[in-house]
Amino acid sequence: QVQLVESGGGLVQAGASLTLSCVASGDTFSRYDTGWFRQAPGKEREFVAAIRWIGGFKSYADSAKGRFTISRDNAKNTVYLQMSSLNPEDTALYYCAADTSNILAAHYWGQGTQVTVSS
Q1: Cα(8)–Cα(94) distance, integer angstroms
Q2: How far apart are the C-alpha atoms of 97 and 112, rounded to whole Å?
Q3: Is residue 79 pLDDT above 90, yes or no?
Q4: Strand, coil or helix: what is 81?
Q5: Using one digit for the tens of pLDDT, what is the confidence trace for 30-71?
Q6: Nearest 5°: phi and psi at 38?
Q7: DSSP structure string for 1-44
Q8: For 94, phi and psi rounded to 5 degrees?
Q9: How many CA atoms lie within 13 A of 52 on its CB side?
């Protein structure tokens, strides 16, 4: 079992950059696929990016490609989401997730960190 705590959210203007962090504790973090999801008001939670624990393969939602970068530091039990060229449509509660096999059906979730982008 793993516990996840996100940080780094905030209020920024359109065009700005922001880096989210997610610190894991509990089980061996390096054996978990990790990812970021987001949920905007009135919308369903959606996938943003993920990184596999084997090989470090990365995947991104179309909305994130070219603007967001996911990375992880297993020594620090931390996964990051670097976001650039933010726009108001990126406003959402961003969640960190982890799973041993299928990140899209993740068993472990953080409490979320709010990102608000003003125009």
Answers
A1: 10
A2: 10
A3: yes
A4: strand
A5: 889 999 999 999 999 999 999 998 888 999 999 999 999 999
A6: -145, 155
A7: -EEEEEE--EEEETT--EEEEEEEEES-GGGSEEEEEEE-TTS-
A8: -100, 130
A9: 8
